[in-house]
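ok trying again, last paste got cut off:
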Amino acid sequence: QVQLVESGGGLVQTGGSLKLSCVASGAVFSINAMAWYRQVSGQERELVAIITKGGTTNYADSSKGRATISRGGDWNPMRLQMNGLKPEDTAVYFCKAIGRFGVEYWGKGTLVTVSA
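nice, full thing came through this time. structure:
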């Protein structure tokens, strides 16, 4: 089992930046990739960015060029920095870990609100 705890959400002005952190505990050795997702109420959760064990990163079109995903040693912490925030970036941001055999673990999420 892997436990994930996100932090860093809050209120940000349009054009500002967010810096989110995710700390993993438990069977961290089993993690093969970690990702940030976000969800707006009433909509499906969508990928923001993903980073693999080998350090390969991939970004959604909506975050490409504005976001940077990174990780520390043994994954901790895994971070997301995103610049040039827009009101449409307002969402609950979730940390996800993908373990062996594709098992997924999710954090509880952290709310980011971008004011117009």
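cool. The chain has no helices and eleven strands. Residues 13 and 104 are 32 Å apart (CA to CA).
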